[in-house]
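Researcher: Structure for this, please.
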Amino acid sequence: MSKKGLTDTVPAAIAHKDMAVIVSSVSKSFTRWQRKERPQEQGASEEISDGASRDSNGTSRNSGKASRDSGGECFLQEKPGSRQKRIFGKGGIRTVFGQEKRTVTALDDVSFQVKRGEFVAYAGPNGAGKSTTMKLLAGMLQPTAGSVSVLGMSPEKDRIRLMRKLGVLFGNRTELWWDHPVIQSFEWKKVVWDIPEAVYRRNLGMVTELLDIGEIRNTFARELSLGQRMRADLGMMLLHSPEVILLDEPTLGLDVVAKRQMIEFLKRLNREEGVTILVTSHDMDDLEEMARRILMISRGKLVYDGSFDGLRDIAGNLTHLTVTTDGRVPELAGCRLLEGKNGVFQFEVDLTRLPIRGMLERLSQADGILDIEIRKPPIEQVIAQLYQAWKCDAADF
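Model: Predicted structure, token format:
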């Protein structure tokens, strides 16, 4: 098969009819303009912390709003104690207004596939390329290289046809009309999207019940809380019965109750309706509860594709052990004591080095044990360790 991509050789709808999303060798680069940094010229002023400035001869200049040295250089200081900036004179204008073009690679040869009916988490540090991927799948951006297929269609060439089967929700944006009731935004979508009356009524009833938005349907969007707005946005997105849903930070800023409602609804939607869901979030515990598979991206490259348990294996199969005793400190070789108070002791054990059977044998031989609790470490802790490791690897490279 050619290097150009899976969708370039045979129609994706035929060759991969069970695939909802196919991303093949996709790269995306942006051009960014930024201020050009110039090295400080010889004889220019030295910046000192007290707001004063000295030239190369050691002569001090006052720290007023602007000052000029004997060579005609003009210096600007916005307020006392801040750094001075040279704005006129030798190369001054070029220093302030000079720009340089920089190419930023948001995605670098990324490939993955998502089957129909899958619930997949897409995670990574800030700036890793998550939102860029979502926008490529939705047709809002075009790849610099590679190919993208969603439901057998190209987001670039078949965007209108694709959007009838695709739902997109960005946590920091809303489609609701700000100065109108929520139900009016719903009715607007029904007309513009030409949603059949029977489909609209069925979906409206479903989202009203499951998302608990009956009380806010006649409320102006501007008067909704963040959690209410997110539920209303999610309900509006589902009115046309999308087959694939892209969610970018859907739980951003939600309280515990609103987040729980959102998660339970998405799980039910995936389980009962068979909707394919790809979701990004920085809350790894939420992702682990919702999704069965996780894609991890770092600095534009896909670095992991698998289960959450697999991530724990990569970081070391650490397990947390809580032992309650009659006050005596249990001696458990191979287990690292994290803390202990009032007869409750927290241990950390790597099951790759000490198997569960060996750990239980040592527990059975310890004196004074009243209760034992074994649990996996929070996925947040595992991800944080991986992020730090990737960051160090990139710095070494």
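Researcher: Any notable elements?
Model: The longest helix spans residues 256-273. The domain at 109-310 is CATH 3.40.50.300 (Rossmann fold).
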